[in-house]
Amino acid sequence: MQEDIRVYVEEAPGQRRELEAPTDMGLSLMELLKASGYDIMATCGGMALCATCHVEVLAGPALPEPGDDELDMLETLPVVHEGSRLSCQIRLTPRTDGLVVRLAPTGA
Length: 108
Fold this sequence. Notes:
CATH topology: Ubiquitin-like (UB roll)
Oligomer: single chain
CATH superfamily: Beta-grasp domain
Helix content: 10-25%
């Protein structure tokens, strides 16, 4: 039986909200954030075509490198950070336990 993992969302400096997520459903970080009430448009439905699910990875385990589609979309954003990722491209697995992210400001 697979245990749940924890993902943390920094809502303000020094203020983090803990989210629990199952790892046996193949969910993406975007799906977890939307289900948790965060305002993520995800216009393309998780296909790495719109960048409206942009997050900044602040801490946690090393993630797989972004694919070409994700990198292409990140290049279209006006503001990109070192840890910028598309949350639709981050799969929740036991290896993502402890991930800390911050939602990118809308329009950025």
